[in-house]
From TrEMBL, chain A:
Name the record gives this protein: ABC transporter domain-containing protein
Subcellular location(s) per record: Cell membrane
Membrane topology: Peripheral membrane protein
CDD domains: ABC_NikE_OppD_transporters
Keywords for this protein: ATP-binding, Cell membrane, Membrane, Nucleotide-binding, Transmembrane, Transmembrane helix, Transport
Spans traversing the lipid bilayer: 24-48
Annotated InterPro entries: AAA+_ATPase (IPR003593), ABC_Ni/Peptide_Import (IPR050388), ABC_transporter-like_ATP-bd (IPR003439), ABC_transporter-like_CS (IPR017871), Oligopep_ABC_C (IPR013563), P-loop_NTPase (IPR027417)
Automatic annotation (TrEMBL), chain B:
Protein name: Peptide ABC transporter permease
Superkingdom of the organism of origin: Bacteria
Membrane topology: Multi-pass membrane protein
Localization in the cell: Cell membrane; Membrane
Natural source organism: Pseudolysinimonas kribbensis
C-alpha cells in the first residue's frame, strides 16, 4: 500500500475491526477530516447561494454583520421616533368629522436606506395632508420615493429602509389624533387594515397562490374581528366580492384562475374588508391594460363616493391622477417639488418637472397633443447634484440652481372664473422665488 | 380526472420498462448464476439434476421471448423464484421478512427527519438573523459526516463503550414476535440507535433547503400583505410562507421515500438490522440473483409509489397543478 486516501484508511480500519479492539484513533481522524472538508465545501456553497439569490443575503451568514447593523439602526430610529411624541391622543376635537377635514397629516417624513454611516435618503422631509373623502395623488418617476413613502405610511417598509424622522398624525372618526409612528407593534397591527389599508402594485404577487381568494379576504376579517361567526364572515366576503364587481360564486377560485383585472379587484376587496378610513393605492393599475385600468379606476372612485374612505393614489401617470385626484403632490428625488389642486395641474403645472411629466403621457380624454417627455434619467440618490436635484435635466436651469436647493413654498393663486376660493399651491423651484418672496411679504404685512 | 389518468398511464409504462430491465440485466451479466450454483457442488450432480436446477431457476434453454413471458407469468403470480443462498427458501419469504423492518425503521426515520428538518428550517428561516442561525453550521457539519462512519462511531460509543443500547439486531433474541409490551419495547430499543444516526445525519439537508426557500418566500408580496392584514404569526408561518416554501422540498422528499428500500443497505449492515437492505447486501455477496431481482423489483415499485404519493400531495397543496379545475 503506497497511496493512502481517507476512504482507504476507513476501509482498512473497518476490515481490521479497529473499533472492536478500541482503536478509535485509527477510525476517527479520517472521518472527521471528510466531515470538515464537506462542511467547508457547504459553506462555499452558502456563499454562492447568497451571491445568486439576493433575497438570502439580508439573512445570510456571510452578511450577518450588515444585518445586525441595520437592525440596530432601525431600533434606534424607532426609539427616536417614540421619544419625540406622546403616544396617545395628541388632541381631541369633539366635533363630528365631515368631508374635507384633515384625516392624515404627514410631517417632515424621512426614510433612509442602508446603514447609519452612509444612508441613502429615499424620502426627504415630505409633508402632505390627506383630507377625509378625498383623493391625494402622488406622482413621480420610478425611484422618486413614492412607493417608499407608501410603505412608510403603512409602516410596512422592510429593512434596510427605516423611518428616521417625521410624524404621521392620523385623526380617526372619534376625533382622536394618534402618531402612527409612535404605535407599538400590537397597536400597529390593530390600526392597520382597521383604519388604513393598502393595495399593492402587482396583484399576482400579492395574492397567496395556494389559497382561495375568498379565504384571503376572510382571514383579514378573522384576524380583526375574532368574535364574528364563520357564517357572518362568509356573508361579508360575498358582499365585498359583489362590491368590487366580482360575482360571489368566485370566492372559491384560486388567484391563477382569475384575470389580472379580477385579481386587482380582489386586492381592493381585501383592502375594503374592514371598512378602513384610508386606502393607499400603490400603482394599482400599472400592470393592467388601458381598458381594465379605466374600469378599475372607475370602480375605486365609485366605491370611494359610496363608502366615504380617503385615498392616497400613487402612480407615474400624471394625466390619470389629474382625472381622479382632489389634490396632487409631485415627487422628485425623495422630496415633494409641487403640490396643488388637481384641476390647477392640468391647466398650469408650475415646476419644470411637473410640466415634463404631464408632457410624457397621453390623456385618456381631452385634446391630442405632442408628447415631449423629460430628458435624462431619474437621479441616482447616492450622488445627487448640488442645489436643486432636478437642475441637470431642467430646461430652465439658471445661476441659483446649483447653489441652493429651493424649498417648497406657496405661490400666489388666482380666483378662478366661478369665483371659488383658490386652492393653495406650493412649488420648490427658483423660477418662482420672486413671487414666493412677494407672497411672504404680503402675508407679513 | 383526465390528468390523473395520464399520470397513472405514465406510471404503468415506467413500471413496465423498469421490470423489463430487471429481467434483462441479469441475463446480460457475464457468468450464469446456475453455473455458479453448480460450482458449489463441485461437479457432483448428474445431468438430470442440473436440468432440474436450471428448470427451477427458470434458466431453461428456451428463447428469450419465452423466458420473458414466463417471467411475467410468474411475477403476476407473486413468484420470484427461490433464493440461492438460503436455498430452498422462496424469495418472497425473505423479502416478506425484511420489508417490515426496513419500512418500520428507515421509513419512519425518513418521514421523521423530513418533518423535523423542514419544521426547524421553517423556524430558522422565520427567525433569520437571530441566534437560531447557529443551527445551520451545526447541521451542515452533521450532514457532511460520512454516513457509515457516523453509524459505526455511534455504535462504538453507545453500544460498545457505554452499553446503553444493544449492539445489533431488530429485537432481543429469544423473544417471540407479537403484540406484547416486551417485544415492542425491545424493537423500539433496538431501533433507537439507528434512528438517531439516520435523523441526525439527514436533518441538515431538509433544514437548509427549507430555510432558504422560507427566506425567499418571506420576501414575497403576499407575505407582506398577510402581515399588513394583521394575521397571526402562526397563520403567516403555516399558510402563507410555510406551505409555499414547502413545495420544492416535496419533490426531494418523494425521491427520498423511494430510496428507503434501496438506501437502507448501509444502515442495516452497520447496525446488523434484519431489514431488506441487509438481505440485499447478503444477496450481492452470495451472487443470489433471484433475491437481487426480487429486491430490485420492490425498489422499483417503492420509487414509483413514492412518486405517485408526491404527485398527489402536490395536487393537494398546490392548486396550480390541478388541471382543468
Amino acid at each position: 500500500m503506497t497511496e493512502w486516501s481517507w476512504g482507504g484508511i476507513l476501509y482498512w480500519a473497518q476490515n481490521s475491526s479497529a473499533l472492536a479492539f478500541g482503536a478509535w484513533w485509527w477510525f476517527v481522524p479520517p472521518g472527521l477530516c471528510i466531515a470538515l472538508l464537506g462542511t467547508a465545501l457547504s459553506l462555499i456553497n452558502f456563499g454562492i447561494d447568497e451571491f445568486i439569490n439576493p433575497r438570502l443575503r439580508s439573512a445570510g451568514i456571510a452578511t450577518r454583520k450588515g444585518a445586525k447593523r441595520a437592525a440596530r439602526a432601525s431600533a434606534a430610529g424607532i426609539r427616536r421616533a417614540t421619544g419625540r411624541t406622546p403616544r396617545r391622543a395628541l388632541r381631541r376635537t369633539d366635533a363630528a368629522f365631515t368631508r374635507g377635514d384633515v384625516i392624515l397629516q404627514i410631517n417632515d417624513l424621512v426614510v433612509d436606506y442602508g446603514s447609519a454611516d452612509q444612508p441613502v435618503r429615499a424620502v426627504d422631509g415630505v409633508s402632505l395632508t390627506l383630507r377625509r373623502g378625498q383623493v391625494l395623488g402622488i406622482a413621480g418617476e420610478s425611484g422618486s420615493g413614492k412607493s417608499t413613502l407608501a410603505y412608510a405610511i403603512t409602516r410596512l417598509h422592510q429593512p434596510p429602509a427605516q423611518i428616521t424622522a417625521g410624524q404621521l398624525l392620523y385623526t380617526g372618526r372619534d376625533g382622536e389624533t394618534v402618531d402612527v409612528l409612535a404605535l407599538d407593534d400590537r397597536e400597529l397591527t390593530d390600526f392597520r387594515w382597521e383604519e388604513l389599508s393598502i393595495v399593492f402594485q402587482s396583484a399576482m404577487n400579492a395574492l397567496n397562490p395556494i389559497l382561495r381568494v375568498g379565504a384571503q379576504i376572510e382571514d383579514a376579517i378573522e384576524a380583526h374581528r375574532p368574535g364574528m361567526s364563520g357564517e357572518e364572515r362568509a356573508e361579508r366576503v360575498r358582499e365585498l366580492m359583489r362590491l368590487v364587481g366580482i360575482s360571489a360564486d368566485r370566492v372559491g377560485a384560486y388567484p391563477h384562475e382569475l384575470s389580472g383585472g379580477m385579481r386587482q379587484r380582489v386586492m381592493i376587496a381585501i383592502a375594503l374588508a374592514l371598512d378602513p378610513e384610508i386606502i393607499i393605492m400603490d400603482e394599482p393599475t400599472t400592470a393592467l391594460d388601458v381598458v381594465i385600468q379605466r374600469q378599475i379606476v372607475e370602480k375605486i372612485m365609485e366605491l370611494k363616493d359610496r363608502l366615504g374612505f380617503s385615498v392616497i393614489f400613487i402612480t407615474h401617470d400624471l394625466s390619470m391622477l389629474i382625472e381622479l385626484s382632489d389634490e396632487i403632490a409631485i415627487m422628485y428625488a425623495g422630496r415633494v417639488v409641487e403640490t396643488g389642486a388637481a384641476r390647477d395641474f392640468y391647466s398650469s403645472p408650475q415646476h419644470p418637472y411637473s410640466q415634463g411629466l404631464l408632457g410624457s403621457f397621453p390623456t385618456l380624454s381631452g385634446p391630442k397633443k405632442t408628447l415631449t417627455g423629460i430628458v435624462g434619467s431619474p437621479p441616482d440618490l447616492r450622488a445627487l447634484p448640488s442645489g436643486c436635484p432636478f437642475r441637470t435635466r431642467c430646461p430652465h436651469a439658471f445661476e441659483p440652481c446649483p447653489v441652493e436647493d429651493p424649498p417648497l413654498l406657496p405661490i400666489p393663486t388666482v380666483r378662478d372664473a366661478d369665483g371659488d376660493a383658490p386652492a393653495p399651491r406650493a412649488v420648490a423651484c427658483h423660477l418662482y422665488t420672486a413671487q414666493q418672496a412677494a407672497l411672504a411679504e404680503g402675508a407679513a404685512v | 380526472m383526465k390528468g390523473f389518468l395520464r399520470r397513472v398511464a405514465f406510471y404503468l409504462i415506467t413500471a413496465w420498462a423498469a421490470i423489463t430491465l430487471n429481467f434483462l440485466l441479469p441475463r446480460l451479466i457475464p457468468g450464469d448464476p446456475v453455473t455458479r450454483m453448480l460450482d458449489r457442488f463441485h461437479g457432483q450432480l448428474g445431468p438430470n439434476a442440473v436440468f432440474a436446477l436450471r428448470k427451477l431457476f427458470g434458466q431453461t434453454s428456451d428463447n428469450i421471448w419465452d423466458q420473458y413471458v414466463d417471467y411475467w407469468t410468474r411475477l403476476l403470480h407473486g413468484d420470484f423464484g427461490v433464493s440461492f443462498t438460503s436455498y430452498p427458501t422462496p424469495v418472497t419469504t425473505i423479502i416478506g421478512q425484511g420489508l417490515p423492518w426496513t419500512l418500520g425503521l428507515i421509513g419512519v426515520c425518513t418521514v421523521l427527519s423530513f418533518i423535523i428538518g423542514t419544521g426547524l428550517g421553517a423556524f430558522v428561516g422565520w427567525k433569520r438573523g437571530t441566534w437560531v442561525d447557529g443551527f445551520i453550521p451545526v447541521t451542515t457539519f452533521l450532514t457532511s459526516i460520512p454516513y457509515f462512519w457516523f453509524g459505526l462511531i455511534v455504535v462504538y460509543v453507545f453500544a460498545v463503550v457505554l452499553r446503553w443500547f444493544p449492539l445489533s439486531g431488530g429485537y432481543t433474541p429469544g423473544l417471540t414476535p407479537g403484540f406484547n409490551t416486551d417485544f415492542i419495547g425491545s424493537v423500539v430499543l433496538h431501533a433507537l440507535l439507528p434512528s438517531i444516526a439516520i435523523i441526525v445525519s439527514s436533518i441538515g439537508y431538509w433544514l437548509l433547503g427549507m430555510r432558504n426557500m422560507m427566506i425567499t418566500t418571506l420576501s414575497e408580496d403576499y407575505v407582506l400583505l398577510a402581515r399588513a392584514k394583521g394575521l397571526s404569526a402562526r397563520r403567516i408561518l403555516s399558510t402563507y410562507a410555510g406551505r409555499n416554501a414547502l413545495l420544492p422540498s416535496l419533490a426531494g422528499f418523494a425521491l427520498s421515500l423511494g430510496f428507503i428500500v434501496g438506501g437502507s443497505i448501509i444502515t442495516e449492515v452497520v447496525f446488523n438490522y434484519p431489514g431488506i437492505g441487509y438481505a440485499l447486501f447478503q444477496a450481492v455477496q452470495g451472487q443470489d440473483y433471484p433475491l437481487m431481482q426480487g429486491i430490485f423489483f420492490i425498489i422499483t415499485i417503492a420509487v414509483l409509489a413514492a412518486n405517485l404519493v408526491a404527485d398527489l400531495l402536490y395536487v393537494i397543496l398546490d392548486p396550480r397543478t390541478r388541471q382543468g379545475a
